[in-house]
Amino acid sequence: MSHTTLLTITLLLFGAYFAWLAWAMRHRTRVLQGRWWFFLRAFFPNWKFYHAVGRPPRLHVRGQQASGEWTDWQLVYPRSQRALWHLFHNAPVNLALNHQNLVDHLAADINDLPEGGDIQASVTYPLVARLARLALPSEGAPYQAYQFELRLASPRGEAPERMLQSPVLAA
Question: Per-domain residue ranges for the chain?
Fold first, then answer.
């Protein structure tokens, strides 16, 4: 395929994408519903932190060992130490920010959930569940089950508020 053909196809795809966005904005509602709308989120971060100052959601996870004993709840993405090198290359923190963005989207989906709705039917829930499973500490015996929580952290040092606790999930 020639360079001109690839450029034409790329421009047509970009044009179709922006035409779709324009159509979606004309038919906008407060919350876009549906599995396919979720994929548009990949292009835009969650900007809800500009609307109100509040308690940010944090992901915690614990695992159940073969003996049946549960580990303590652990914060999945604590703040990392800063270094001068991070000004130029900071891939691990960028990945952690991407994961936190997914947690923020789950918190937004919980807040937008209609009365009697099931958050487990959303697209973000299984993604965060998988993220929590991968975040289990690797040291020690393998886990047979795990559980995750979304907690709203307090900037003033108050006790966090539980937003969501998953059922026990097989590891």
Answer: 53-170
